């Protein structure tokens, strides 16, 4: 929790909530997804507090910070935060989401991690003047406007496929085939038309989701026949994943490999 808060606060140093907030309708799907997931967390944590189930709420918060944020959302948006223009909509959108999450998360942990919460709150007050103490701030409630169950359902399978892709990338990294994941191209094969169409609907986002330089979606074996290196998905068995080297040269600014560099 502390490390998650440190990362978020470090990336809000130039964010002014009065002028830099991006409206919800301008957020991309990934931003809206994590906001929706966070509202579900608020609901579960509030229910646990009502039942005095402190062990449950601690695990819920820890899991959200470790899995939903650190291993997923924060990992993906690093490039946006570090390489996008300071005042770009995409960077400000990510900061908007981070600010909203940390502003409520710090209140959720206050009863059980009091000193950590107060320390975080004092740093937040440098960004936006609020109550003198986190214990004087209003308690967070679920914002139903941010809950999007259809979006969560839409992303369920792509998150499973992402786990299979990350596993394949880690194997290739261990073999010394690639170093950074941006050196890779992810090739995904499926013989299921519905799965193929589903993946194509994410085509413009896949490089960002997998944190690679290029992706290729193939229905059946296509021109690129299955390699012995292609692995069947564990989380999502309807796909096979093959990792190859990304074509092109490395961009010195974003570190992605591109044939136009």
Automatic annotation (TrEMBL):
<feature type="domain" description="Methionyl/Valyl/Leucyl/Isoleucyl-tRNA synthetase anticodon-binding">
    <location>
        <begin position="31"/>
        <end position="187"/>
    </location>
</feature>
<dbReference type="Pfam" id="PF08264">
    <property type="entry name" value="Anticodon_1"/>
</dbReference>
<dbReference type="InterPro" id="IPR050081">
    <property type="entry name" value="Ile-tRNA_ligase"/>
</dbReference>
<keyword id="KW-0030">Aminoacyl-tRNA synthetase</keyword>
<dbReference type="GO" id="GO:0004822">
    <property type="term" value="F:isoleucine-tRNA ligase activity"/>
</dbReference>
<dbReference type="GO" id="GO:0006428">
    <property type="term" value="P:isoleucyl-tRNA aminoacylation"/>
</dbReference>
<dbReference type="InterPro" id="IPR013155">
    <property type="entry name" value="M/V/L/I-tRNA-synth_anticd-bd"/>
</dbReference>
<dbReference type="GO" id="GO:0000049">
    <property type="term" value="F:tRNA binding"/>
</dbReference>
<dbReference type="InterPro" id="IPR033708">
    <property type="entry name" value="Anticodon_Ile_BEm"/>
</dbReference>
<dbReference type="InterPro" id="IPR009080">
    <property type="entry name" value="tRNAsynth_Ia_anticodon-bd"/>
</dbReference>
<keyword id="KW-0436">Ligase</keyword>
<keyword id="KW-0067">ATP-binding</keyword>
<dbReference type="GO" id="GO:0005829">
    <property type="term" value="C:cytosol"/>
</dbReference>
<keyword id="KW-0547">Nucleotide-binding</keyword>
<protein>
    <recommendedName>
        <fullName>isoleucine--tRNA ligase</fullName>
        <ecNumber>6.1.1.5</ecNumber>
    </recommendedName>
</protein>
<dbReference type="GO" id="GO:0005524">
    <property type="term" value="F:ATP binding"/>
</dbReference>
<keyword id="KW-0648">Protein biosynthesis</keyword>
């Amino acid at each position: 929790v502390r490390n998650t808060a440190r990362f978020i606060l470090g990336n809000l140093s130039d964010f002014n909530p009065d002028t830099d907030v991006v409206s919800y309708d301008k957020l991309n799907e990934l931003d809206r997804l994590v906001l929706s997931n966070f509202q579900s967390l608020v609901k579960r944590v509030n229910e646990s507090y009502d039942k005095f189930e402190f062990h449950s709420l601690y695990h819920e918060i820890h899991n959200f910070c470790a899995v939903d944020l650190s291993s997923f959302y924060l990992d993906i948006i690093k490039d946006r935060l570090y390489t996008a223009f300071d005042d770009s909509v995409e960077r400000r959108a990510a900061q908007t989401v981070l600010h909203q999450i940390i502003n409520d998360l710090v209140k959720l942990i206050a009863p059980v991690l009091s000193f950590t919460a107060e320390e975080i709150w004092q740093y937040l007050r440098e960004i936006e003047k609020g109550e003198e103490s986190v214990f004087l701030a209003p308690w967070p409630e679920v914002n139903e406007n941010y809950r999007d169950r259809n979006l969560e359902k839409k992303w369920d399978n792509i998150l499973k496929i992402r786990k299979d892709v990350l596993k394949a990338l880690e194997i290739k990294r261990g073999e010394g085939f690639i170093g950074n994941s941006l050196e890779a191209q992810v090739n995904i094969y499926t013989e299921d038309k519905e799965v193929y169409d589903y993946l194509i609907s994410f085509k413009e986002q896949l490089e960002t989701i997998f944190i690679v330089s290029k992706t290729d979606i193939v229905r059946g074996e296509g021109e690129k026949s299955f390699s012995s290196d292609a692995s069947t998905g564990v989380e999502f068995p309807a796909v096979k994943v093959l990792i190859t080297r990304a074509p092109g040269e490395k961009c010195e600014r974003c570190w992605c490999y591109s044939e136009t560099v």
